[in-house]
């Protein structure tokens, strides 16, 4: 046989055929194991048709993988298309094109043109009805078309400018997906983008084209057309600013633009805002004993232990409800809670990752909880799940309201009570932040090993829990 080409065979009948096994991942997608085509009855015909058929094979593989990676019912942006096309172009560039007795890599300009022509030849051509350029193929999938353009340009085709929709998808992946409040955060983000669209700033707008006028238009729309209060407008504008900031950073636009939603004044927002110190009140010391007694008597074992641990540590309710048995360390010189993020419960900030000493009734409650938890892994099985802290808070609030109807006294007020005790015990600010998991200010927050910090926190808590006399 004079002609020797990879995947080309001469049959006993004297005809030339192209036969090639499909990659394993593609086999399941197209439901066939091999790709077969007749090349012709002569060696000359086989030589002429082989590059086209080889490119048809590569096109079949590329199209199958495109359907897998980007389902037809998922909207995608121009940047999404380009990124997928870059991957397809890289796959094509790594293939081998047989031209006569030559074997050229797909990245070779001559081979790239052959791949393009072979692939496009499988689509019908426009007859000149004005919808397309006469003679050009019609219906070529956009990812394949762009992949071929990238290939034939030698990889020099510029990426499309990122849009607000690109920033939204990025924000979803980085800040929303996997969060215990994913559904609520997704709904809020979609609502914010809906308001932006109504204000004339749609998701297809390029990030770099955003102006200060756009930001004012969105702000004015929320105030004028939606009739929102200034404080509500401020929250939505903060959401937009965070979205744009992340997009600028992760999409490489920090040097090309500034965030037009930054430092945008909202008339009346300052006056309408409630100072953080006034949003919640600590639980008065005189109320603590009857409230604890009610919870211990009526709330059930898990809730009473959660309350007792919170009262003696100042931990957030979600930090306690999300504990695993492994997070409770009882065999050290200083027993403690090891607060780290979990899949079912994230922590509010990086400073929230800490060791909190167990003293007094918190230590007793933790020991009881470990003994009752059995094989675990959650310390509180009923509440150690996504949104478990919400369920615990709702249940505890019924007992809080049985003692007081003050709207500023809630379950979270327990944390404010602990902070008051720390201040009254003259525990310094850094130590208070260490115990409560607030962000530390200045260089001091960087120093100190975990054991030293644990001892400092223990000293502060012991001082605080003696302020109002003996507590049970």
From TrEMBL:
Alphabetically ordered keywords of this record: DNA recombination
Positions of the Tyr recombinase domain: 282-465
Cited InterPro entries: DNA_brk_join_enz, DUF6538, Integrase-like_cat_sf, Integrase_catalytic
Pfam families: DUF6538, Phage_integrase
Endoplasmic reticulum as UniProt keyword: no
Name the record gives this protein: Tyrosine-type recombinase/integrase
Organism, scientific name: Mesorhizobium argentiipisi
